[in-house]
Write a structure and sequence with these properties.
The chain is built from six helices and two strands; from the N terminus they run αββααααα. The chain has about 110 residues and is mostly helical. It has one domain: Tetratricopeptide repeat domain (Serine Threonine Protein Phosphatase 5, Tetratricopeptide repeat, Alpha Horseshoe), CATH 1.25.40. α3 runs antiparallel to α4, α4 packs antiparallel against α5 and α5 runs antiparallel to α6. The termini are far apart. The N terminus is likely disordered.
């Protein structure tokens, strides 16, 4: 297996303790986001991930609310307008989807 391959990146990291390989526990994404937001409540990267996590957990409205905050803090945040368009499409809000998609296109120019 060559370094950097998918299998290499997804393998559980280990440490050598007394000649025995033991797994290293990684904090989960939600914990990392929580830590980042405790340090800085306006961390747009952490907020964007939090929005995605909330949507993944089935809380679409909450995800949209958080995403709106990301866009207030940084209207040019990469991918945010496209993500917002997708969430509106999931809601069946065609007009809002088209508006967000247009904003994404304008922002990406």
């Amino acid at each position: 297996m060559r370094p950097g391959s998918l299998a290499d990146r997804t393998r559980q990291p280990t440490a050598n303790q007394g000649g025995v390989r033991v797994p290293i526990e990684r904090p989960d994404t939600a914990s990392l986001v929580r830590q980042r937001l405790l340090a800085n409540a306006d961390d747009v990267d952490a907020l964007f991930v939090l929005a995605a996590l909330r949507v993944q957990d089935g809380y679409l409205e909450e995800g949209l609310t958080i995403l709106d905050r990301v866009l207030r803090l940084d209207p040019r945040y990469p991918g945010a307008w496209r993500f917002k368009a997708k969430l509106h499409r999931m809601q069946g809000a065609t007009s809002a989807e088209q508006s967000a998609r247009k904003r994404a296109e304008d922002t990406e120019r």
